[in-house]
Design brief:
By secondary structure, this protein is mainly alpha-helical. 64% of the residues lie in helices and 2% in strands. It has 17 helices and 2 strands. A two-stranded antiparallel sheet has the order 1-2.
C-alpha cells in the first residue's frame, strides 16, 4: 500500500496566516490609533498581526523537524541542511529587499517603511535587523531575521531533543526567556529571536507526534489545543487590544502550546472536517507562495492605501473596504509572479550528485512548500508530492528540494 508523509493542512495554514497579515496591514493603514482599536468592533480580530508571526514561527519548527523526528532526531547533514535553508529564504528575501528599498526611496513618505541608507541595507542584507536597530525599508522584515536565527539554532535543538529529551529541551529554552522578561519587562525594538525561541522549540517537539505510538496519536489533540488557547483568547478579548499589544511577550509564550497542539492534530489527520477545509486546493496554492506574499505585500498595501485610497475616501471604514478590495488581489497576483521569478527557480537547483550515480526514472517537478517547506526523504512521499528523486549514496534514492 502506498503511504505518504505529507501533512495535509500545513500549506493551507501557512496561506491563511499570510493572508491574515495582509488584512492586518490593510486595517492598520485604515484606522489610526494603534494599538487602540479605533475601528468597528467586529474588525477587532484584525489588530493582532503579531499572532500570525507566532503561528509562522511554531509552524517553522514543526515543519523542519518532521523528517528528523522520523529518523531518531537526526539532522541528516548540517551542510546539506544549511544549503537548503539558504536557498529557501535568501534569494527571494534579497529580491524583496531590493524592491522594497527602491519603493521606499521613490516614495519616502510611505508608511511602515523608511528610505534606505547604506547602514540599513547592510544590516537588512545580512539579516542582522534583530541585533541592530535601524529604520526598516519594509516593516514586515523583522521576522525574517528571527527565522534565520532560529534556523541556525535548529541543529542544537535537535541535539538536545535527542540526548536530553523533550522536557529538558523546552525548559532549557524557556527558562532564559522567562528570566529575561522578568528582569527587563519594558518594550523591545530588537531581540525577538530569543523571545520567540520557545515557540520554535515547541513546534520542533510537536513534530515528534509523527513517530509516536498509536495510543499517543489517538489523543484528542484538537480539543487539547482549544483548551490551551481558550484562556489566552478570553484574556485578549476582556482586556482589549492596547493591553494585549503591551503584553505580547507573555502572550506569545502562552499561545504557543495551543498552536503546537493544533499542529499535532493535523499530523494525526484528525478531525477530518478541519483537514479538508485547510487542505482545499485554493488554500494549498496560497500556502505555496505565502512566503512571497509575506515578503512583498507591505509596499503593495502601503502604496494603494497612501496614493489611491486615503486621498479619495472620507471615512475610515470606507478606506478599509476599498483598500482590501484593491490590495488583496494585487498583492496575491504580485506575490504569485514574484514566487515564479525569485522562488521557484531556486527550489529546482540541484546539489552535486554522488559519483557514478545510477539512472533514475522519476521525472517530476519539485513541489514548493512556502514559507517553510517540510523536508521529506522517502521515495513514496516524493512521488506523491511531486519532488525530484535522485540517487544518493550506495545507490539509495533520496529527495532533493
Amino acid at each position: 500500500m502506498i503511504t505518504t508523509h505529507r501533512i495535509p493542512g500545513l500549506d493551507g495554514l501557512r496561506g491563511l496566516a499570510a493572508l491574515y497579515v495582509v488584512l492586518h496591514h490593510c486595517w492598520l493603514l485604515s484606522f489610526p490609533g494603534y494599538p487602540a482599536n479605533t475601528g468597528p468592533g467586529w474588525l477587532g480580530w484584525l489588530v493582532h498581526g503579531r499572532f500570525a508571526v507566532v503561528v509562522f514561527i511554531t509552524l517553522s519548527g514543526f515543519s523542519l523537524a518532521l523528517a528528523p523526528a522520523r529518523n531518531a532526531w537526526q539532522l541528516g547533514g548540517t551542510r546539506r541542511y544549511a544549503a537548503r535553508r539558504a536557498r529557501r529564504i535568501l534569494p527571494a528575501y534579497w529580491a524583496a529587499l531590493a524592491i522594497s528599498a527602491l519603493i521606499a526611496a521613490v516614495v519616502p513618505a510611505l508608511p511602515l517603511s523608511a528610505p534606505p541608507t547604506w547602514k540599513s541595507m547592510v544590516v537588512y542584507g545580512l539579516l542582522l535587523q534583530d541585533a541592530v536597530a535601524v529604520p526598516a525599508p519594509n516593516g514586515a522584515f523583522w521576522s525574517i531575521a528571527v527565522e534565520a536565527g532560529l534556523y541556525l539554532a535548529f541543529p542544537v535543538v535537535l541535539l538536545s531533543r535527542r540526548h536530553l529529551g523533550a522536557t529538558a529541551t523546552i525548559a532549557a529554552v524557556t527558562v532564559p526567556v522567562v528570566a529575561a522578561g522578568l528582569l527587563d519587562p519594558g518594550p523591545r525594538a530588537i531581540g525577538y529571536t530569543l523571545e520567540l525561541a520557545p515557540l520554535f522549540t515547541l513546534g520542533v517537539l510537536a513534530a515528534g507526534i509523527v513517530a509516536a505510538a498509536g495510543r499517543i496519536r489517538r489523543r484528542p489533540w484538537l480539543l487539547l489545543s482549544a483548551l490551551a488557547g481558550a484562556p489566552v483568547l478570553t484574556l485578549v478579548t476582556l482586556r482589549g487590544s492596547a493591553w494585549t499589544v503591551a503584553h505580547y511577550y507573555w502572550l506569545d509564550l502562552s499561545v504557543g502550546p495551543a498552536i503546537a497542539l493544533f499542529l499535532a492534530a493535523l499530523a494525526t489527520h484528525r478531525p477530518a472536517t478541519v483537514i479538508r477545509a485547510l487542505d482545499c486546493a485554493p488554500l494549498r496554492e496560497l500556502g505555496r507562495f505565502s512566503y512571497s506574499l509575506y515578503l512583498i505585500h507591505m509596499p503593495v498595501v502601503a502604496l494603494i492605501s497612501t496614493l489611491l485610497v486615503r486621498p479619495h475616501t472620507g471615512s475610515h471604514p470606507t478606506a478599509f473596504t476599498v483598500t482590501v478590495l484593491l490590495a488583496i488581489p494585487v498583492a496575491l497576483a504580485a506575490a504569485r509572479l514574484f514566487a515564479t521569478v525569485f522562488e521557484t527557480p531556486f527550489q529546482h537547483l540541484r546539489q552535486r550528485p554522488a559519483a557514478n550515480p545510477p539512472q533514475s526514472s522519476v521525472r517530476d517537478k519539485t513541489v514548493l512548500s512556502i514559507p517553510h517547506p517540510e523536508l521529506f526523504k522517502s521515495r513514496t512521499c516524493s512521488r506523491v508530492l511531486g519532488a525530484k528523486v535522485v540517487p544518493g549514496r550506495r545507490g539509495k534514492p533520496h529527495t532533493r528540494l
